[in-house]
Amino acid sequence: MTRRTVDHHEFLLKELKDPEIRKGYLNAALDGWDKKHFLSSLKNVVDALGGIGKLGAETILSRQHLYDMLSENGNPTWESILKVAHAFRLKVHFELEPASKRH
Question: What CA–CA distances, in Å, run from 80 to 16, 65, 83?
Answer without folding.
Answer: 20, 9, 5
